[in-house]
UniProtKB/TrEMBL annotation:
It comes from Lactobacillus jensenii. SUPFAM superfamilies: FMT C-terminal domain-like. InterPro entries: Formyl_transferase-like_C_sf, MPG, MPG_sf. Transmembrane segments: none annotated. This is Putative 3-methyladenine DNA glycosylase. One of its GO terms (biological process) is base-excision repair. Pfam families: Pur_DNA_glyco.
Amino acid sequence: MNYQNFFQNRPTTEIAQDLLGRTLTYENNGEILGGLIVETEAYLGPKDYAAHSYNGRRSPANEGLYCPGGYLYIYAQRQYFFFDIATQEKDNPEGVLIRAIEPTLGIKTMIKNRSGKTGFLLTNGPAKMMQAFGVTSRKWDLHPIEKTPFSVDLTTKKAIKEIASGPRIGVRQDNDWSKRPLRFYVAGNPYVSDMKKKNIQENNGWVLTK
């Protein structure tokens, strides 16, 4: 399966769930950093009050959402950067925010990039993940993912015991969209944002393999 097939021709909510258990990587100065995607959020275009494209908003800042599925939408809030992937055909501005990964590759470098943060705090949030990768600009915004240092492995996927869903984090508007279960995550995985210790599962929510 190629990126275009994966990130188009099906609902964004389905894509957001299918990304769970796949490996996201970033090449930083010749070293591969990354881990298993454990948390995503779906944003459903002009009708979605929380989407950057709500009500058809369009500007150079959010043009990445209007690109064809598989293009990157990297945006900044203050000094922090966030990683989205467009998920529909051109000019249909839906996308998925990658919120968290369970680190598996280049962990020492990611700890250094996070100023010594270790354990769950290393990558349990979208800005933390980008800091761990060493991303400090929007350089790869508006690019197809295959032409950037980022990669999502579409050939393999770690088996998940349960995919859970809930309201997106940081969406505080007093409307129905703030409550919709458009955040998807590996139930019981400690790298998921705001995961309570009591809810952490054996093997981090992955299916045990022999």
